[in-house]
Specification:
Length: about 675
């Protein structure tokens, strides 16, 4: 019964779960207070004294029990509104009691409402020897007598029966020594019932380290096993395609970062092991050309490549960019998406199976089961966060030897997040923007300044520029947002009437073809204004667009705002991003807007986003179990995270399979349940 409730309400299934249900704070009952110490700032007190008197007062709802407790220094009032019968039985004037509770004042007199109370026997030590834990619980549990107090009792009972060998050490001695960590057994005791604050801190430090270290170890082992045992296709030749393109058709000098990353990937793909790499780079850092060079490398080694993008529009744009880049290369590039016509699809599938197509660009359609490659050697996944892990795995199955995989992220991910959520991947960073980028001026304007903003748009259009106006549409099905978008569109149209001005509108409810047409008209400059939802968020490239207006900017997340801003500043002209908001902004919204106005660095913005929203909300990591830490926070504990990462690396460096005697407990722990200890079930 109790067990069922614990399972349902708190997911506590085993003794181990119970021990891992940590208190969120402690109350200090190691100290004894006196009545004369109490002042307006006092919160909780523990007082020992003699009961002077008690009586019930009031009627019905107002009925209460009032008692007076006296210590050497004064008198404090104790009040109960509930459980009067039970308390009354306990009370006897002239006896000594120990009370604990939150102080309140009534007519300037200190009192404690519903204090915890116990009889003090003459020989008994007055204060407790430990801090008392306060546990998270639920209303339902409280109602069934499993509130924080009862959880505390259960835990205490459990701990009293547990010995060192029930919670054996799993960390190697030298790590414990080096980091000065207390044992696992003591940590579990002290985190629940610490003797003092220092003991509690030591327990938390030990368990946080363990938590992060284990997660790092798991991921680094996956990575190290791939490095050692996976089979991968070998790209060991830099051939004609790569060289010719590099020497003759590269439209610009590569940045240092691009060169470095290409080198990293080249050495990774030449070793005969499968590459699984995350490529991070801010908007506009030039990830596409890196992908193109790698696809040429694959082709030089006789392999096919495919590049997947999350949307039809993006795939098409990639297709066009890549086709243009490779125009002189006599290398067939094709596009396959959901809207590819049947006859064309057939032909493409055929050519893929025959190996005639070397580079395929597409959407999810690429990974449908009917698509058979002749010898797929490289998969590039652009704008990673829209592709799930399961989808990635599907690609693995396409060939006997899995292709190399390069995942390119839409938005930078903070380092700590990348380490924890993608620690099993290798990792490259484009931390340099191509030269000559003009900074985008970002400003915050209120709704009330709209007409000024519209005037500004007008002057920019007169200069020949194009404008994005983005409306929030969080859910494509959201009716309110949809109506706002339509209203906004009408509004813009009133300011910018045809035939002098032409406006494109793109949103998720349009059929794909209509989206495409509207987008195209903007790309070809048939329209000057693009009114859109975030469907254009990622990747779209219209260099002549110089102004990004974001309507109701307070409704967008930071990384989304940054992505949107990245749509401008792609051409030679000075660009602007205008964040329009209502006049009332919440604290977080204000901070987001402030961040956008003051920094253009995607990594900084990602860090801020992580701080504001927490790791669970960051794109692409929501489902990642890797972030379900009980104690550690990748925001607050980044130093411990770095430390655990380095230590995991050095442990695996010496003993990659954890087979040495000292590492065996660690290995066993990893092989067991996620909790790591086989506990008997609570019954
Ligand atoms: P993202 O990393 O956001 O996908 P892109 O690959 O779309 O960035 O590149 C953004 C723009 O920068 C493109 O127009 C591209 O041609 C240009 N670009 C990329 N690398 C360089 C470079 N090394 N020098 C100059 N321009 C570059
Ligand atoms: Mg891109």
């Amino acid at each position: 019964m109790r067990a069922d409730l614990l399972k349902k309400e708190l997911s506590i299934f085993t003794f181990g779960d119970l021990l891992s249900h940590f208190p969120f704070r402690h109350i200090d009952r190691t100290q004894l207070n006196t009545v004369n110490e109490i002042n307006a700032a006092t919160e909780y007190v523990q007082i020992a004294g003699v009961l002077l008197s008690f009586e019930t007062m009031g009627q019905k709802q107002g009925k209460r029990l009032v008692a007076e407790l006296k210590d050497k220094t004064g008198v404090i009032e104790l009040i109960w509104f509930q459980g009067l019968g039970w308390v009354q039985k306990l009370l006897q004037t002239g006896h000594s009691y120990l009370v604990y509770g939150r102080v309140s004042f009534f007519n300037n007199q200190p009192q404690i409402v519903h204090p915890e109370i116990e009889i003090l026997l003459p020989e008994q030590p007055v204060a407790k020897k430990y801090l008392e834990p306060v546990y998270p619980t639920t209303e339902k549990l409280k109602a069934k007598g499993l509130g924080g107090r009862q959880l505390s009792k259960l835990t205490q009972a459990l701990l009293s029966q547990i010995h060192e060998h029930n919670i054996p050490e799993i960390l190697p001695d030298d790590i414990l020594c080096q980091l000065n960590l207390i044992s696992r057994f003591h940590a579990f005791r002290q985190i629940h019932f610490p003797q003092n604050n220092e003991a509690y801190e030591a327990a938390v430090r030990r368990l946080k380290f363990e938590e992060l270290f284990i997660s790092q170890l798991r991921m680094q082992m996956i990575r190290s096993r791939r490095h050692r045992f996976s089979k991968g296709v070998v790209f060991d030749t830099v051939g004609d395609l790569f060289n010719t393109f590099y020497k003759e058709h590269l439209p610009f000098e590569l940045t240092g970062a691009q060169k470095r990353v290409i080198k990293e990937i080249r050495s990774d793909t030449a070793r005969g092991k499968q590459m699984n790499r995350l490529l991070q780079g801010d908007v506009g850092s030039g990830k596409t050309i890196v992908a193109v060079l790698l696809m040429l490398l694959a082709a030089d080694n006789g392999f096919q490549s495919c590049l997947m993008a999350p949307t039809e529009i993006l795939s098409r744009q990639h297709f066009e960019t890549i086709s243009a880049l490779l125009e002189k290369m006599k290398l067939p590039v094709r596009i396959l998406t959901g809207s590819t016509k049947t006859a064309e699809r057939k032909r493409i599938l055929n050519e893929l199976a025959e190996g005639e197509i070397k580079i395929l660009v597409g959407t999810h359609a690429v990974i449908e089961d009917v698509v058979q490659f002749n010898n797929l050697g490289l998969v590039v996944i652009d704008e990673q966060h829209r592709f799930g892990v399961a989808q990635r795995a599907k690609l693995w199955e396409k060939s006997a030897v899995p292709p190399h995989v390069l995942v390119m992220t839409a938005t930078p991910i903070p380092r700590t997040l990348a380490m924890t959520a993608y620690g099993d991947l290798d990792y490259s960073v484009l931390d340099e923007l191509p030269p000559g980028r003009k900074p985008i001026t970002t400003v915050h304007r209120y709704e009330s300044q709209r007409s000024k903003v519209m005037d500004f748009i007008k002057t920019e259009i007169e200069k020949g520029r194009q404008i994005y106006i983005i409306f929030p549409l969080i859910e494509e099905s959201d009716k309110m947002d949809y109506e706002n978008l339509m209203k906004g569109y009408e509004n813009v149209k009133a300011y910018f009437p045809e035939p002098k001005y032409w406006i494109s509108m793109v949103h998720g409810r349009q059929p794909a073809e209509q989206k495409e047409t509207n987008m195209k008209r903007f790309v070809t400059h048939d329209t000057q204004i693009m009114v859109s939802t975030t469907v254009i968020e990622v990747g779209v490239n219209v260099p002549n667009a110089s102004v990004m207006i974001i309507e109701s900017a307070e409704k967008f997340g930071l990384s989304q705002l940054h992505q949107l801003r990245g749509r401008v500043g792609r051409g030679a002209e000075k660009s602007y991003c205008i964040l329009l908001t209502g006049s009332k902004l919440g604290n977080d919204a204000r901070e987001r807007i402030h961040t956008m106005v003051t920094t253009a660095n995607g990594f900084e913005i990602a860090e801020k986003d992580l701080q504001l929203r927490g790791p669970g909300e960051i794109d692409g990591t929501k489902q990642s179990g890797a972030l379900n830490f009980k104690l550690a926070s990748i925001v607050q504990d980044r130093e411990v995270l770095e430390l655990s990462k380095n230590i995991a690396a050095s442990v695996l460096d010496v003993d990659p399979d954890l087979t040495s005697a000292g590492n065996l407990p660690l290995k066993n722990f990893l092989n067991q349940s996620p909790q790591g200890i086989i506990w008997s079930k609570i019954s």
